[in-house]
Design a protein that fits this description.
Elements: E1 2-7, E2 14-21, H1 28-32, H2 37-45, E3 48-53, E4 56-61, H3 63-81, H4 88-99, H5 108-112, E5 117-119, E6 122-124, H6 129-140, E7 143-147, H7 154-167, E8 173-178, H8 194-212, H9 217-223, E9 227-231, E10 243-247, H10 255-262, E11 270-275, H11 289-297, E12 303-307, H12 317-344
Parallel strand pairs: 7-11, 7-12, 8-9, 8-10, 10-11
Antiparallel strand pairs: 1-2, 2-4, 3-4, 5-6
Helix pairs in contact: 2-4, 3-4, 6-7, 7-8, 10-11
Length: 356
């Protein structure tokens, strides 16, 4: 790598130029992408000029942008060395992680190359720094809460870790549960067998399992009790030993249901609780157990809270924008409600009090 520094044509803005020589072992098409789509993503990611000649990449721009571009190329090369392909989305995530002030010593390449589970040629990995920290927390704590908006991989990664633990024989079974809020958990009023009644509420958990296991094996594992998918109401009165237990949509539990669930924990078991406190479907007079439990268990040993944000959304780019827009809308409404309450609050009486 070579570096030169100079002033821009106006003389006010310093510019820097760095030449990066890519090792011969790295195919340039892997680095630049088919039709140079990765190169175009790199150029859009920061305000600098990128030129490629042979196996040399020259970056010219402000010193901070050039430094960012150099780090970005280094991370992409590290990912390619592992044999993993790089997509434009991965380049964007690398840049977002490099820009983040909370990255610390964790490298984007370490995030994007952490394999959790492989099945039928597909590998499940975290895609953001917070997702990696979430996965790491599951490895190191008995109870983990994954709290964040839709699309941040809370449930999907938890199910992947559960399947990984089962395959490694760290647990003997997986228990997946959700509150069936829409039916008020009064499933007897619905037509069909028990499984036909609860299927609509538990379908997202089945979908995740089908991505990670041979679909033909799932009915057998469920009939053996190795995998259990059931509504939260069916957890009452049980002690779950040697199990990986996931409570999904936990924002729709009452404080009493949350306590009931957490106290099902048995020996050799692990729990992951996932939810989005901005999407509570409970009646307005019922508190969310997920909101309440944060104030109760925060700081308790071996209990960890992971908080994900719109930046961790791994669905369509618009999902993150939608989450942010709703966040701004809710904040504005809260401010307006607080102002209205202050305006209409009766003022304290003035003057001397009368004597009886």
């Amino acid at each position: 790598m070579t570096e030169t520094n100079q002033r821009s044509r106006g003389g006010d803005q310093p510019t820097s130029q760095r030449k990066i020589v890519i090792p011969a072992s790295i195919p340039m098409v892997s680095l630049l992408g088919s039709g140079d789509d990765l190169l175009r993503t790199m150029e859009r990611a920061f305000d600098a000029d990128v030129h490629v000649r042979g196996n040399e990449i020259t970056i010219t721009g402000r010193p901070e942008d050039v430094a960012l571009g150099e780090r970005m190329v280094d991370e992409i090369v590290t990912v390619i060395r592992t044999g993993q392909g790089v997509t434009p989305e991965a380049v964007e995530r690398i840049v977002a992680m490099l820009r983040s002030s909370s990255t610390g010593s964790e490298r984007p390449a370490d995030v994007l190359t952490l394999d959790i589970l492989s099945n039928r040629g597909r590998t499940i990995r975290p895609k953001t720094l917070n997702q990696k920290r979430y996965v790491d927390a599951i490895d190191h704590h008995t109870i983990v809460f994954g709290i964040g908006p839709a699309g941040t991989g809370k449930t999907y990664l938890a199910v992947a870790k559960a399947v990984q633990s089962l395959q490694a024989k760290q647990v003997r079974r997986i228990v997946l549960t959700r509150p069936a809020v829409e039916a008020g958990e009064r499933l007897g009023f619905l037509p069909g067998t028990l499984y036909e009644k609860i299927d609509p509420y538990l379908r997202p958990l089945y979908d995740a399992l089908h991505d990670m296991l041979d679909p033909d094996s799932i009915p057998r594992l469920m009939s053996q009790g190795t995998i259990e998918v059931a509504p939260l109401a069916y957890m009452r009165g049980r002690t779950l030993n040697d199990a990986f237990i996931i409570l999904d949509e936990a924002q729709n539990t009452s404080p009493e249901q949350m306590k009931m669930f957490l106290t099902r924990l048995g020996f050799g078991s692990q729990m992951v609780v996932t939810g989005d406190v901005t999407q509570v479907d409970l009646p307005t007079d019922t508190k969310s157990g997920l909101r309440v439990v944060q104030g109760i268990l925060d700081g308790v040993d071996d209990v960890h809270f992971c908080r994900l944000s719109s930046g961790d959304v791994v669905r369509h780019r618009l999902v993150g924008d939608i989450v942010d827009a709703y966040g701004r809308y809710d904040a504005a409404n809260d401010d307006a409600a607080a102002s209205e309450a202050a305006r209409t609050r009766p003022s304290a009486p003035h003057g001397p009090r009368g004597h009886r």
